[in-house]
Amino acid sequence: MVKGTIAFLKQTDEIADRRRQEILNAKDCVPIQGISYYVSNHGNDANDGKTPASAWRTLARVSDAELCVGDAVLFRRGDLFRGAIRTRPGVTYAAYGEGEKPKLYGWDKDLADPALWTLCNAEQHIWKYNEKILDCGTLVFNSGEAHSRKLIPSYINGQFVCRDDESRMFDMACEMTEDLDIVCFYTERMDTKPSKGEDFPVPVIDEESYGDLYLRCDKGNPGDVFTSVEALPRRSMLRVGDNANVRIDNLCLKYIGLHAIAAGGVCNGLHVTNCEIGWIGGTIQHYWGTDPNYPEGRRGTVTRFGNGIEIYGGCDDYVVENCYIYQVYDAGITHQVSTYNGSFFMKNIRYADNLIEYCVYGIEYFLDKINGDTASYIENCEMCGNIIRHSGYGWGQQRHNKHTPAHIKGWSYENTAHNYSIHDNILDRAAYRMVHLVAKEPESCPVMYRNTYIQKAGLMLGQYGANREKEPEILYFDKHIDESVYDVMKDEGAKIYVIE
Questions:
Q1: Helical spans, DSSP H, in 295-452
Q2: CB-based burial of residue 330 (10 Å sphere; 0-12 exposed, 13-18 middle, 19+ buried)?
Q3: Tell me, what's the pLDDT at 206?
């Protein structure tokens, strides 16, 4: 254990800054075997897309294109594209040209236009967005200078009620007490699917649920006050699904309210490299009241979600390397599944050399084996060379379950794993646990070595070990920290820095 001095913390900042610049300035070098199709702001969707001079223009054209295995879609550097993409198997999505990474943003337009807003409550400074919009995770102002607090009322027995006091109807004028608060309302489609023993209609929230957005802005019309207002809409930017061998390189994916890259089912060969991914998540998943982290919730209560890069289900050859990921409502990177319908195998996973900052979970994984599943497992999983910082200090901490953040979060599921290692990472200051690495059997816990731990004195290191009989104890950055890291976690070659 070594004291983490101001000079040491400055040196750590410099290491992170160098990694950030290396990622932001990464060169284009992905191999392309088939046809390259180009996309630019000066293109035309009627073009064939096969040269920079005959480029396509929109993400919708990319989604509609009949692409073949080995083909590539290349976005012009310095350009900005809006919407979402449905990927194709075996296709690479990358950049061309000079300058900054091409930017792919979630909503159809920047909201910093005074014509887009109408004052609806002068006393409380509440403005209504004049167009219908998908549920928003938050609003981000002036490229991250500020962001909204999203108020999320429950919907019970035909009305919106306060989440913390379901006996009170939700009144915007009373509840929007802070500058830049937002509320989204949608009730056009209802679902009567029962949950937790209750059966009454709740709103259906999906990528077709266009409702109303309200913003409190004390300084005036938000279109006048800010130079940019970006919404995080409830859509995923790159919808991979179970498409095999999708490659994503050197793209900037920002302002997305669901997942920046979403894969599921059984997705093999997903590689994500050299990307910038920021301001992700926070939209409503559903009103079914089934959030395991909100056990007191009943039908009509709200679950929010949103990850940077996610595979939900089985996978093989899943790689995330050299990416800069920040300000994510849930996890920067994740592989996860609850095995309701059969068995899943999560194999050959590598998360390496990423910089992950201000996410609730830097890296999240879990294998929740249920319904008698004995076959599912994680195999050959490596997390190495990553710099993970300030987990639990980002915008996602406006969540209700504030006690869950961690740099690496495995929860306390069965998490059956073979050949699982976490090594040579820098884990720098977390609001709560630094690590949550628990499995039913001790041999399923990761092998740890040469990791660096930086934490404030008295805060948590986290949990490590088997939970067959009981949960492993919580370890702290106290006088026993050396024993916790070297003897409990058996992290050989670890470096430990305590900030007084």
A1: none
A2: buried
A3: 93
